[in-house]
Amino acid sequence: xxxxxxxxxxxxxxxxxxxxxxxxxxxxxxxxxxxxxxxxxxxxxxxxxxxxxxxxxxxxxxxxxxxxxxxxxxxxxxxxxxxxxxxxxxxxxxxxxxxxxxxxxxxxxxxxxxxxxxxxxxxxxxxxxxxxxxxxxxxxxxxxxxxxxxxxxxxxxxxxxxxxxxxxxxxxxxxxxxxxxxxxxxxxxxxxxxxxxxxxxxxxxxxxxxxxxxxxxxxxxxxxxxxxxxxxxxxxxxxxxxxxxx
Length: 246
Description:
The chain is α+β, with helices and mostly antiparallel strands. Helix content is 37%, strand content 14%. The strands form 2 sheets. The protein has a 4-stranded antiparallel beta sheet.
């Protein structure tokens, strides 16, 4: 078996999300005329609004080719966010590839206003060379004793017990496959610690809901670890939409 660490990769997100949100949001108030023109390019690249901004010239660094003033969009979003008008944030979205254990993915898929694609233990045969004829697992937090640097097989205490159990599961799983049992049946002996990759796409409003729940001190430690990595990426692409969630 091999031990891997949880990770998060940003796969895609709405380009220029703040401008998308402002333009959609202003439809509610018919205040589109208040969208401010970019001072750098004087809005010369602006065109009739389309959700995805396809075809916009990206030559203006100040507005990323949207032709609108980014600072104005930030003020608008802060205002609607503070007023609880979060439905407008649904016009922007982001998608991640998340590597964690099966237990955490069971929590992730409870967020129903999202799209998921998950590594299948029915169709992935970990007994094949593609997977090195071994399973990958996520080590639970807090099991390592202070100063421990050896291999899981030589560990004492809870970590050693966990490693022995996981290795036993791997041994039985591979033995079942070698006897001709199908992966979808043999998977019944795989542990909750099994590494799993899942892709999740959601709009910004749902990501805010996700972060409120999953970065809470009451959340499972491994779930919170993943949520904090997602929050860092969302803050990077659109701080104004997530900066109020601590």
